[in-house]
Amino acid sequence: MTVYRLIPTADPDDPNWDRAINHGEVVVLARSTGEARAVAALAEAAWFSEGVPRVTTQVTASAFMDERLYTVVEDDTGTFPDTGPVRVLFGNFSMPEDFIPNRAD
User: Cβ distance 48 to 63 under 8 Å?
Assistant: First the structure.
């Protein structure tokens, strides 16, 4: 397993951020850079769904899946464990204050 850092690389005023959320740096334990992106996107979707009934979240629309917004690099600092299950090791997901969940009423 490898520890990967997902780092936002687009400028804060990049128009691509209009359709995705910048969560800052996220650290993931995964087998590949692609899996690291997917794990971060799935964790983001799970976080958004928590406590918000009937929210529709598209994992493919996550900023983590967009190479123009996030880059993935190997972390060789030894700060995080490189054993165990695939998972997010560090990250703070945030929801915009003006977020309105998509509800099916």
Answer: no
